[in-house]
Design goal:
The chain is α+β, with helices and mostly antiparallel strands. It is built from one helix and five strands.
């Protein structure tokens, strides 16, 4: 399964979509399975939202990590 390292993102974004894009870009992942790692994001809440990043590898394995805005 992929190994995910969530990065830090800003406290505020104009839309959920831009926050999710920032979280995806800030998240790194490593894996030993051939193929592309696909990152997706989902968000719960609006203020103090929690963004969860899921990374899926070419073998169909996935892992998740939460990415909170910076303090």
């Amino acid at each position: 399964a992929p190994v995910i390292t969530p990065g830090t993102i800003a406290n505020c974004y104009p839309t959920v979509g831009t926050a999710e894009t920032a979280a995806i870009q800030a998240t790194t992942a490593e894996d030993n399975c051939p193929g592309t790692l696909v990152k997706t994001a989902s968000t719960v809440g609006t203020c103090s939202a929690v963004i969860t990043i899921t990374v899926t590898d070419g073998c169909g394995n996935s892992a998740t990590a939460r990415n909170w805005p910076a303090e």
